[in-house]
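fyi for ur records
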Amino acid sequence: MEFKHNAETINEALGIPEGRARDIKMFVTKQILLLLEGKLDSVSRIMEMIDSKYKERNEFGYAMFLLGQGLIIVAQEKAKEEKS
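which gave:
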């Protein structure tokens, strides 16, 4: 896997075409929403699905990155709600 240091986006740096990156984003977002709705029981279940769906190292890494970023956003929003 080659990392392009002059890329403008992470998916571009990882060599993932924009259309494929959008598909990965949608998949990860949907899984996070299912987790929040209680339809998935754990983050590790999402990680297993990512592992089985994305066999290419760059796509797997990108999906895991998006999962991590999404979970950070969820945690920040929940903290804001608890303060209110």
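Residues 7-82 form one domain. thats all i got for now
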